[in-house]
Amino acid sequence: MTEQEEKPGRDPIFETGPRLALCALLQGAEWVDFATARDMLGATDSAISRHSRALEDAGYLEVRKGSVGRRPRTWFRLTKTGQTAIRSHLDWLTRLRETLDT
Which positions fall inside the Winged helix DNA-binding domain (predicted)? Predict the structure, then answer.
């Protein structure tokens, strides 16, 4: 039995840095710009860059780059896979909390 089968819904990618918070922020949005994500999470630019790359590499995050006027901008949104993964992980955390409360 694999670790994922032993702990359904748990996804270790969300247990490092602000990845869980970033995905939670994106869960209810169409697109969120880099600066808004950074400010809402209280994280540094390098932390957002590093963790968004890990989520993108996992197929959980879509990144769009462009510009507003002459200023470069980056936007994020969850992919369908990312939406399913965060929902499943949050459900697992809820079940874990319920187990601990009993």
Answer: 19-96
